[in-house]
Amino acid sequence: MSGYEHGSEHRPDMTEKNLRYAIYATSTIFILELAGWMYTNSLALLSDAAHMFMDVFALVLTYAAIQIAKRPSSHKVTYGYHRLEIFSALINGITLIIISVFIAREAYFRLIEPPSVRGMEMLVIAAVGLVVNLWVTTRLHGHHDLNVRGAYLHALGDTLSSVAVIAGALIILFTGSLLADPVLSFMIVAVILLGSVRLIRDSLHILMESTPRHVDINELVEAVNSIEGVEGIHDIHLWSVCSNVHALSAHILVGEIQVCETVALIDAINKVMAGKFNITQTTFQFESVECGRPLIHGVEH
Predict the structure, then answer these.
(1) Which of 185, 190, 193, 187 is CA-nearest to residue 45?
(2) 83, 242 in Cβ contact below 8 A?
(3) In 105, 155, 174, 204, which residue has its Cα 20 to 30 A from 240's Cα atom?
(4) What is the dihedral of CA 154, 159, 164, 168, to 10 degrees?
């Protein structure tokens, strides 16, 4: 017999609405900064505009992934489409690295031969971008969904980029130094790379079906063994379907019990798994301690 429960598959409240707002706002700032780059000749604005363009793509991809993931599971796709979240997050991380390389390359050439830049216009455009980016970042902050985290990192990178552009504009206005533009661009690259590497690492961790980071195997074993009727647990397999859906399969050792008694035992184990470890997809195979062979067979994933 297997205890197999479908966990909570809902997304945080307002996530989709916030993503739509973020797409509209980010698209507007992209157009503004692109026009601003043409007028001011600022590398920081050009880099930020390119970053914004990639962010619009990432946000649209994130929103699309959430919509597709809501499709119900089927006989062919038994876990539904949650894994699209992870693939989308991985793409987000890769695009962040690509845009970082682009910014660094342009900044290098600007260090060698800094062009003239319109500081005041650059400052005004960057200030508008900062306000919008702060609003978007606030909207997306605090989500545990890897996909939304990816979108949040994009928005955070935009916010930091806007701060860097403002700082560069002020330095240009008050000192006349044109090197501030490429130097601050390098700072943007460092921050973006840090976040993107972490995002890619977490995505690959799930795609490799590694043990969820928040679960301690030893603690889980102790929790199961403490349940009345359980004599032991082994052959444990733990993995994540996506960032908020975690699964477990295991062999449970029991004494001489009736088949009907395993139903209550499954419920007891599942309550512990869901309440303490946030594991909502479970499959158990029961084995008899006395006879040393499976008493009741379950379905394993």
Answers:
(1) 185
(2) yes
(3) 155
(4) 120
* Residue ranges of domains in the chain: 15-207, 217-296
| Per-residue pLDDT reduced to its tens digit, 191-223 | 778 888 988 999 999 999 999 999 999 999 999
pTM, entire model: 0.73
* Cβ–Cβ < 8 Å for 182, 107: yes
Tell me the chain's radius of gyration from C-alpha atoms: 25
DSSP string, 255-296: -S--HHHHHHHHHHHHHHHHHHH-EEEEEEEEEETTTSSEEE
**Residue 17 and residue 23: Cα distance in Å, rounded?**
10
Residues 6+ apart with CB under 8 A from 200: 90, 93, 94, 97
**What confidence tens digit (pLDDT) does each residue in 80-108 have?**
888 887 888 898 889 889 888 888 888 89
SS3 245: strand
Better-predicted residue by pLDDT, 192 or 241 = 241
CB 210 within 8 A of CB 190: no
Please give the CATH superfamily to which domain 217-296 belongs.
Cation efflux protein, cytoplasmic domain (3.30.70.1350)
